């Protein structure tokens, strides 16, 4: 399946990472995220700090509408979605793994001023969790993507629990908020996965409708982003191109990015 292959091949991020990965992330000299500075000031500062080739490709979106909650399944399994059922003119940006910590990601998120959901793999981010803390201050919400990115399908309850609960526990320790959403590595899962996700205190798990790589958005259905679509990208060496491709695909479809967590009861 092409879609699965495109999904989380970015463990390859470890091999395609920049030649000189810096162990400690240097925050760009923009507004201090912890202050109560208006988002517009942060946005303007980030736009000014970006090279024009990036700045000029960032679209402006109308505000997202008031969210409506999905209905989660009754019983002992978490919900499973590749699209949020809605007629609202919205789409969801999700960014996975965390191996490649691109120096422009913070500025790009600040300049776009849109919500994102980061499904982080603990092993990919543990060398520099602060990098993602900064992204949190720019509208990102950090969610669970296991500790070591295994294929979960067919694995025992205990194995899956160790990876899924363990990931949520570690991210809670790093960031002070326990994840409520989960993405299985590669999207691969079974009924046990959804039971474990719920038992680990999370509400829903997610696949996707579009993937992104090398600055190109790949569609599974049709040729445009549809309302409620969940779009997958990764922290890869071409993060700016991928992020800008996603933003412009959403904009071209007449949609605006919304916060996935706001749609889950
Ligand atoms: Zn992944």
From TrEMBL:
This is Chitooligosaccharide deacetylase. InterPro entries: Glyco_hydro/deAcase_b/a-brl (IPR011330), NODB_dom (IPR002509), Polysacc_deacetylase_ArnD (IPR050248). SUPFAM superfamilies: Glycoside hydrolase/deacetylase (SSF88713). It comes from the Bacteria. Residues 6-39 are annotated as: Disordered. Residues 89-265 form the NodB homology domain. PROSITE patterns: NODB. PANTHER family: GLYCOSYL TRANSFERASE-RELATED, SECRETED PROTEIN.
């Amino acid at each position: 399946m092409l879609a699965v292959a495109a999904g989380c091949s970015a463990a390859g991020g470890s091999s395609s990472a920049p030649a000189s990965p810096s162990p400690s992330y240097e925050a760009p000299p923009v507004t201090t995220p912890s202050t109560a500075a208006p988002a517009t000031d942060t946005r303007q500062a980030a736009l000014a700090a970006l090279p024009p080739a990036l700045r000029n490709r960032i679209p402006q979106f109308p505000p997202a509408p008031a969210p409506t909650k999905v209905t989660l399944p009754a019983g002992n399994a978490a919900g499973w979605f590749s699209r949020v059922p809605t007629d609202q003119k919205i789409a969801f940006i999700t960014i996975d793994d965390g191996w490649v910590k691109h120096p422009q990601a913070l500025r790009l998120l600040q300049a776009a001023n849109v919500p994102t959901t980061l499904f982080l793999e603990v092993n990919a981010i543990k060398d520099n969790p602060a990098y993602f803390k900064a992204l949190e201050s720019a509208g990102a919400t950090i969610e669970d993507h296991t500790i070591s990115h295994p294929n979960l399908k067919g694995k025992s309850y205990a194995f899956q629990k160790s990876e899924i609960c363990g990931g949520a526990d570690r991210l809670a320790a790093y960031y002070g908020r326990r994840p409520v959403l989960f993405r299985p590595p590669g999207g691969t899962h079974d009924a046990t996965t959804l039971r474990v996700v719920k038992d680990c205190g999370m509400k829903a798990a997610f696949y996707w409708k579009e993937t992104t790589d090398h600055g190109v958005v790949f569609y599974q259905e049709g040729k445009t982003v549809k309302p409620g679509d969940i779009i997958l990208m990764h922290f890869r060496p071409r993060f700016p191109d991928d992020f800008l491709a996603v933003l412009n695909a959403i904009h071209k479809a007449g949609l605006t990015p919304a916060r996935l967590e706001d749609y889950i009861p």
